Amino acid sequence: MIGPVLKVEDLRVSFGGFEAVKGVSFELGARETLALVGESGSGKSATALSILRLIEREGGRITSGAVLLENDGGKTDLRHLREDALTGVRGNQISMVFQEPMTSLNPVLKIGDQVSEVFIRHRGMSKRDALAAAKQGLDEVRIPEPARRLSQYPHELSGGLRQRVMIAMALACRPKVLIADEPTTALDVTTQAEILRLIKSLQDEIGMGVLFITHDMGVVAEIADRVVVLRHGEKVEEAPVEDLFARPQAPYTQRLMAATPKLGEGSTTREAGLETVLSVDNLSTRFAKSKSLFRKADAGTLAVDGVSLTVRKGETLGLVGESGCGKSTLARSILRLIEPESGRVEVSGQLLTGLPPRQLRASRKNVQMVFQDPYASLNPRLSIKALITEPARIHGMVQAREIRDLAASLVSRVGLEEDAIDRFPHQFSGGQRQRLCIARALSVSPKLIIADEAVSALDVSIACQITDLMLDLQQRDGLSFLFISHDIAVVERVSHRIAVMYKGKIVETGSWEDVLRHPKHAYTQKLLAAVPSPDPARRRLLDDRLEHQDIAV
Question: Which residues, by range, are in coiled-coil regions (predicted)?
């Protein structure tokens, strides 16, 4: 390690009476990438926020320890700096990129105003010069048409472009340290590969140290020089990345490695039945642009373009593709949460397209949906008993006197204790909440569950538990799943067949062996090339083989 630019010594952080970080120490060198890994609640983000002294804004406080930043040959303890001095450090000497750029960017300010603010505040530039520097910054992070982007708003950019804007802002003042807190978790594999390669190339150019926080061990293997593993606020292991993956010492690290899905391990599913549960035929969905006084309505965007697919009883069809390819729109169109423009959808022989509202509502008990964010899916004011039995009550499948017994049965089926039914959503972890969302879907005995990115926001061990649960339910009850995800290794693990979606079309469908081991379409090949391997000896995302290319459908 080239001399440390950042040193954390015996850091302790508390939220009220709860100690979230317990004596954590580590060093970060110039041009080094240190990965901070662990499950939710391990203290990763609390440690990162403490370095920049943002933890106070989250209700926490640093109770002891030191955060030493190299400064003109000496060391400055950030813990004891006043707020005005800290303002000069944040974004200037230490910058941070957060997981969700949409919540980090101001939705009512143009991109140019937000990026130029960094130059105005830390470099004292004029508005004109700052906008010119902002344009150059967007160009450096490979944003196409940077001049045009300056006048756009965040909602007009894709997730990958918004994350590039956040990186441009973070690197504007050429910081000594970049803290990247789960910056690629919500991104598809090709965009993730581009962001990781971008951070690495800019790191080499600037010479900064990178503290990379993630629960994705594949990403760790691709980019890290050293790894610090946290559990319940304590450091349980620290090692060079090659040693950690080859010879993990702590039992907790070993469990993390075991839970990490690896592309090529194969599917763990059993043989499916012959009965067709879901049939989608030539389905198209268009988002029309609204007309105004000065502009006629145009044809709009064809988000789903002539898609056909089937799912059999007891089968899981995995659906993969980049953000914006139409996966979620297809899922919502199947349920007619979004009205398709044309095509047919049948569930167990019943035609859903064209049904009047009352009949459609009754038919939806056969198809239930589990969404990505279990926090947003559960009403915080309702008890678990009320939440998970709500679909059954809506469809008149349960009497009032039977609700408690049904709730107890449902939580038991998803591996939770019976007393869970009297508690509220905030009293459960993210993984437990996703189990509750599955329990709610099961309350009406559906034939098909559409899981839309249902495990992408979860830690690897929790995601493994949820997919194990889905496989158990499938084997026991003959459930069918349409499993939508950008994590291809997880899709492989749970799927009988895989469909690849690109620009609104299904470009390849087949058994998981055929699609993943013998991909025929160029886009499928590109997706597979972008999947990070949890093996440092097989690093491949940081080369130039994954440059953006337009692929013919």
Answer: none
Tell me the pairing of strands 234-240 and 226-231: antiparallel
Residues paired with 158 in a beta bridge: none
Total residue count of the chain as it appears in this document: 553
Burial 7-22 (b: 16+ CB within 10 A, else e): bbbebbbbeeeebbbb
| 188, 486 contact by CB (below 8 A) | yes
Yes or no: domain 4-108+153-258 corresponds to CATH 3.40.50.300: yes
pTM: 0.82
Scan for tokens 């059999």, then name that residue. Answer: 312
Task: Name the residue ranges covered by the structural domains of the chain.
Answer: 4-108+153-258, 276-286+302-520
Other residues' Cβ atoms within 10 Å of the Cβ of residue 94: 24
Q: How far apart are CA 254 and CA 393, in angstroms?
A: 44
**Average of per-residue pLDDT across 81-98:** 89
pLDDT band at 294 (very low <50, low <70, confident <90, very high): low
Confidence band of 456 (pLDDT split at 50, 70, 90): confident
Please choose, from the candidates 137, 131, 135, 185, the residue with its C-alpha nearest in 3D space to the C-alpha of residue 160.
Answer: 185
